[in-house]
Amino acid sequence: MTPGTWLALVTALLLSGAAVRALRRRARREAWRRFFRHRAAAWGVGVLAFFVIAAVAAPLLAPFDPNRQLDIVELKNRGPSWIYLFGTDVLSRDVWSRVVFGARVSLAVGALAMLLAVTLGALVGAVAGYYRRWIDATLMRLVDVGLSLPRLFVLLMVIAVLGRVPLPALVLFIGLTSWFGTSRLVRAEVLGLRERDFIAAARALGAGSGRVIFRHVLPNAAAPIIVSAALGIANVLLLEAGLSFFGVGVPPPDPSWGNMIADGAPHLATAPWTALFPGLAIALVVMALNAVGDALRQALDPRQEAT
Amino acid sequence: MTAWLVRRVGAAIAIVFAVVTLTFFLIQLAPGEPFLPPPEQPMDRAVVAELRRQFGLDASPPVRYWRYLVQMAHGNLGMSFGLHRPVADAIAEAVPNTLLLAGAALLIDFLLGLALGVYQALRVHRAPDVILGNVTLFLYSVPTFWLGLILLLVFGEWLRWFPVGGPSDPVMCPTVASLHCVIDRAWHLALPALTLGVVGAAGTARFQRAAMLEVAGQDYVRTARAKGASERRIALHHTLRNALLPFITLFGLAFPFLLTGAVLIETIFAWPGMGRLATDAILRRDYPVVTASALLASTVVVVGSLLADLLLVLTDPRIRVRENA
After folding, report:
1. In chain B, pLDDT over 70 holds for what percent of residues?
2. Global ipTM
3. Which of A153, A297, A298 to mutate to test the interface with B (most CBs of B within 10 A)?
């Protein structure tokens, strides 16, 4: 760690604190105020803000190149110190720098895979719930099949079958196997919505099915979609970690939190810090996402009282 | 009710069938194949061809699929490519280990999770609830295998309270022959079961707490209080009894979690169960073992959710089965 990186770290912390305060002060709408009434909401937003800032400003916060082997003879498996904040790994790479750069990869994989999954889930759920009849039956049986496959298993199989896959393909596969739960939630919401008067009114005014679904049904089903998006990123992060453990996650040498744990696992006894810190990073972000997800559910669903 | 049950069982069988079919064809898409000799260890072409013929790999995929289904209908899961034994034997050896691990984990999950959830709900928004809420949130958010690694490091490597892996002491207790060996087994089981169980319990506790609080706001709880029932009676007889119903749904959802978790945990703790058998088979292109594992896994998941729905219908008189749903 150099004075510059310390300065960047403190700035990032202050910035994320400021972001939370600013959001809170702007919280005029009732839903936002309800959101911040949740005990852990502000904390969760702060943690997420910090990691996003760290991911964006990774070169400033990381004192070393994450993939550079500093000195394979002298600096292997060094414990945490003021210079190497989280220690160094078996290839003498700086663990702190890798955790910071890993935030880029892990958060990007999480966000993109979630985006794909939630879009698919919302579309399938809306179509199934809106059209009912055989479309609904077919799609929901498909979802039943998807939900009864152990996901880790399927992805392991697909990726093992294809050999090493590049990062975009990994995101695609995770996204394509993660939408089943969302589609069920959205369908349940749409089933209630389609009987409402404003939908009948829209149809009476001559709106086509596509317009009704996109302009009237989906915006009103936003609550479960947003909540499952927050929880979806958390799931993807855990899944990516699991895949990396079997050597089929984000390809090395680029760091993701998952493949860092996997790399550190064999050296657990001699250098526990190499697996400890990326795991803590995952735990922190997933905790924050769960807290934000809870708070969102509470804010967007007024029927549910504060718990 | 009967019609509903028949339909659900039919759907369950269809799902399992679909999963097996998907698995069968998915793994055919693989570039590379079993019996492809490594370049450093060349094999005679004729030998490879003979091996492929013996295992029926010379036929086209649809033909092989048909043969597979016919064999499966006879209860024959085929021969493993890599283990030199029938798939059924390998699975029969692995299943008890997974059952033991999953059973112990499930027990910890539900007992601990239920107790914590109820306790938190009774102390809601006070110090114990807040502290436990944070602890369960952390455990709920942690990658299971990472927690396993940390527990292994602390209790296996540093404190040496528990062994670092394997199902039993291979020298003293290869089989469960004496009381001493039963204890040895439990001792080996402790860490993996605890890892899976504690992570599961965190989810269960959060779920149960929410369920308790939702029921606590219902009219019949207020009525009970107005009648002058003691708080203890209200908590146990009115709140808990009704808050246990969603718990049954959770029970059905626990199976996929345990299966996935077990895959990673079995690998970390060198536990010779289904998870390890299946992942090894995937990585080695051992098709028959992979398909059989998929069959087993999807059956377990489907039966779990069917069982949960059935229990729910039987226990909650408010749920009416819609005959045409």
Report:
1. 90
2. 0.84
3. A153
Model confidence pLDDT, tens digit, residues B194-204 = 998 998 899 88
Q: Smallest Cβ distance to A305: which of B217, B263, B302?
A: B217
**B20-53: string of b/e by CB count within 10 Å (b at 16+)?**
bebbbebbeebeeebbeeeeeeeeeeeebeebee
Instruction: Of A246-260, A275-289, B76-90, B246-260, give the range with the top mean pLDDT.
Output: A275-289
Tokens read off for B53: 């013929």
Rounded to the nearest angstrom, the gap between the alpha carbon of residue B288 and the centroid of all alpha carbons in its chain is: 21
Q: Write the single-letter amino acid at B258.
A: L
- Outline where A132-179 has alpha helix (H): 133-148, 151-162, 167-176
What pLDDT is attached to residue B228?
A: 83
Question: For residue A92, which of A68, A110, A109, A116 has the smallest C-alpha distance?
Answer: A68
Identify the residue among B141, B277, B283, B322 best suited for mutation to test binding to A, counting A beta carbons within 10 A and taking the highest. B141
From the list A148, A162, A268, which residue is nearest B298 (CB)?
A: A148
Task: Calculate mean pLDDT across residues B255-269.
Answer: 78
Predicted local confidence at residue B96, as pLDDT: 86
Report the distance separating Cα A208 and Cα A218, nearest Å: 14
Distance of CA B314 to the CA centre of its chain: 24
- Is the pLDDT at A285 greater than 90? The verdict is yes
Residues of B with CB below 8 A from A39's CB? Answer: 130
For residue B293, the chain A residues in CB contact (below 8 A) are 153
User: d(Cα B171, Cα B167) in Å, to the nearest integer?
Assistant: 12
Tokens of B69: 């289904």
Residue of B nearest to A292 (CA): B137
Longest CA–CA separation in chain A, Å: 77
* pLDDT number for residue A286: 92
Residue A286: closest CA among A242, A247, A243, A230: A230
Q: Which residues pair with A88 in a beta bridge?
A: A94
